[in-house]
Amino acid sequence: MRKIEEFYHDMGLVNILDICPSIKLDIRYATTNNFTGEILYEDCNGAFCVPELAYALSDAQLELKQLHPDYSLVIFDAARPISIQKKMYDIVKGTNKECYVANPYGEYAGGFHNYGMAVDLSIVNSKGELLPMGTDYDSFEDTAHVGNEEQLLEKGLLTQEEYSNRLFLYQLMKNHNLFPYPYEWWHYQYHQKEEDKLKFKLLDY
Questions:
Q1: CB contact at 8 A, 87 and 39
Q2: Within 10 A of 6 (CB to CB), how many other CB atoms are there?
Q3: What angle do CA 36, 200, 50 make, to 5 degrees?
Q4: Between β-strands 24-25 and 72-77, what pairing exists: parallel, antiparallel or unpaired?
Q5: Which of 11, 101, 127, 190 has the fewest CB atoms within 10 Å distance of its CB?
Q6: Which of 122, 116, 7 is nearest to 51 (CA)?
C-alpha cells in the first residue's frame, strides 16, 4: 500500500473504488489538466472520502446504471490534503477567482475536500465521454454556478442538452442526500455545515 493510501486509511477514509468498483476515475490534480496547470498529486492511486459519502455515491451509481446502463459516475477529485489546498489558494489569492477555492487559513481550515467530506464528479457515457454540462470541470465562470440553469438556458448560455444533463445530475445526487456547492455543479457533499468538519480530521499531509 502506498504511503498516501496508508495515511488516508489511518484518517478513517475509504477508497471509493473499494466500495463501488464500477465508478470511473479522472483525477485531474494528478495531471496537468486542471486550473493550476500543474501536477499536484504525485502519488495518487484511487479516490478517498469518508465512508458515508462513499456509500451514498455507490447507491447513486447503482441508480444511474439502472436508468442508463451505459452511463457511469466519474470522479475528478475527492480527499485533498491541506498542503495541496494551500498551493491552490495561493494561486488565486487576491484575484476574482479566490471565492472558488476554500481558504486553508480560516477558522474551519480549508474546505470539505480537506476532510474527505466532498467529491467532484460528473457522468460519462460508454465511450468514456463526459456528458455536456455547459462548462468543463474547475470552471471559474458564472455558467458553472448552481441554481440559475433556467436563466442560462433562456440566454443561450446552456443548450437544452446541457440544461437537461445538469438537472439530471442534481436530481440523481439529491436522491442520495448529496448536494452541490453553489458555485460548482460538479462538487457534492453529504455533510453540509461548516461545524460538521469537527466530526472528522483535517488531512494534514
A1: no
A2: 10
A3: 70
A4: parallel
A5: 127
A6: 116
Angle between helices 160-174 and 51-67 (to 10 degrees): 130
For residue range 104-152, list pLDDT tens digits in order. Answer: 987 778 899 999 999 999 999 999 999 999 999 999 999 999 999 999 9
- State the residue for C-alpha cell 495561493: 90
Q: Which residues contact 140 (CB under 8 A, 6 or more apart)?
A: 35, 96, 97, 100
Backbone torsions φ then ψ of 189, nearest 5 degrees: -135, 150
What length is written for the chain? Answer: 205
